[in-house]
Amino acid sequence: MLWLGKWLKILVAWLDLAMLTLWMLLLALLPPSWVKGFYPVWFHRWCRCFVRALNVDLRLYQQHKAPLPDHYVLIANHPSAFEDVGIPALFPVRSLAKMEVKDWWLVGRIAVAAGTLFVQRESSESRKAAQQALIDVVRAGANICIYPEGGCKGRRVAPRFFNGPFVASFETGVPILPVFLHYEAQQAFEWGPGEHLLQKMWRILTSPNNRANCYVFDPINPTHFSSAEAMKEHAHRLYMEWQKRYLI
User: Does the keyword DNA-binding apply (predicted)?
Assistant: First the structure.
């Protein structure tokens, strides 16, 4: 009977998500100037609802020694598609996403209305424009989330980071907030080559271990570095250390 209770709970969560998604889509039809003040709050709720629908046990571990800043540039490793809703379920951030997300059915409209920034990864002009947009958004007071690996690179941290979040931090003086994600069922959550989003959602939903651990560490202050490049190298070394600690 335990399995029946589990799936009834999941069914209710998906019904809640469906109703909230409809509400989000209706709000997204309104002029952006009407909804920009409150839509991010509803987006945060929608992401938390999505986490419940996927039956993920999302845990936040505060590994930082000092209180977190109110204003930050959040970075995280990117092993799965789950963090696209997992991170904004925990943090009030605007994300940078690949341009293809903008055209995703339903999710794309919600992402646009939530203030997501988009980049065409293959285009140098698009990357340059996205970099300036990130700086402008941070200067305007928003928190942003960027995955410095430049996309889903698997459960292991990529051998190098891209400059985007560190340039945004260094140019604005806003600290980097580093987050390390660890999925206990790594293979179930990891985004594999050629895997469809619906396939990945099903694998997450049916995983025998649904624990997702989100470790938050001390901010990286840009005033302690001579350049954005130095910040980037420092952050990458930290992530390699955390990988050794958590990815056994």
Answer: no
Is residue 139 in some structural domain? yes
Amino acid at 32: P
Residue 5 in domain = no
Range of the domain at 90: 57-246
In a domain, 40, yes or no: no
Would you say the pTM of this structure is higher than 0.90?
yes
Residue 147 CB coordination number (10 Å) = 26
Among positive and negative, which fits the CA dihedral 30, 35, 41, 47? positive
DSSP state of 59: E
Instruction: Give CA–CA dist 92/28, Å, rounded.
Output: 19
* Among the listed residues 200, 164, 161, 163, the one whose alpha carbon sits nearest the alpha carbon of residue 83: 200
pLDDT tens digits along 43-96: 999 999 999 999 999 999 999 998 899 999 999 999 998 999 999 999 999 998
